[in-house]
Amino acid sequence: MSDIPATARAAGGSDGKSEIDAGAWLAAIVENSDDAILSKTLDGIITTWNGGASRLFGYSAEEAIGRPVTIVIPEDRLHEEDHILARLRAGERIDHFETVRRRKDGTLIAISLTVSPVRNAAEQILGASKIARDITAQKRAAAQQTLLLKEMRHRVKNLFALATGLVALSARGAKDVGELTRDLTARLMALAAAHQLTLPDVDNEGTAGTATTLFSLLEAIVAPHELADERKRIFVKGTDLTIGGGALTSVALLLHELATNAAKYGALSTPDGRLDVTVSIQDDDALIQWVECGGPALDRVPDREGFGTALEQASLRGTGGTLVRLWKDAGLTIEIRFRLSRLSQ
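RESULT FIELD:
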């Protein structure tokens, strides 16, 4: 670090006489920074601690100064401090090192860390200055973006698979090309309507984000999978419930995923398959029983890994719901529970 001049001219001083102490100026900048700014010795002992550090880590200056910097380092990250100190002693600067630190209350926080050696006039390294910036929001946004990209890829893949299945369903009962075209077009339009319910209403133009009923949602989602010969094989019964705009996307995503799996692997993948969905109220919960029968015979319980499972779990977290699968000889039974208070939000 270069020497700081004894004084600095204040901005706006037209007569050249308005001067302030550079140390006080620098101290004010450091103290009012939103970033955590601190210094430490080469032994890792904290020597200065600004207001940003107090806000970020929860320790006051009185609590932090004189203590080892490891008070904010999780045990599984202590090796990082040894590495940082070794690089500092070699005169290196560390830029934008992303890591995790621990607050006084024990919670963890993602930070970007910049560490610079502090030298005296003789260029001897006395210690280090650290600037830590909270990047929790950026990390959360990056994770959300990754989830959305995976969801988009998953949806596109499923849509192609579903479109292929719908062609096969329509072809079974079509007597000519014209009938096939009409039936397939109707199915694709129904699929588009169901798909629209799972999309956020970013432009206030769609249906997502507004309240609807559970039966309306179910009917829109399963409509593309009915057979062309008017032989009904999907039945929705029980107690209809209102789904609030806050819960709609999560519930629609979950039901859409279940219908997609049924069409690809379960009861809706065969012409003789049947799906019964029953909705009831038990205490403070909404119970959805999803019962498939007549699907392909299973020689083992399928693996439940992959993005479909991750999307399913994310949808359940969005509404505080739970889901249990019961694999029976007759087919698959799924029991889904939502808190009524969360469902109506």
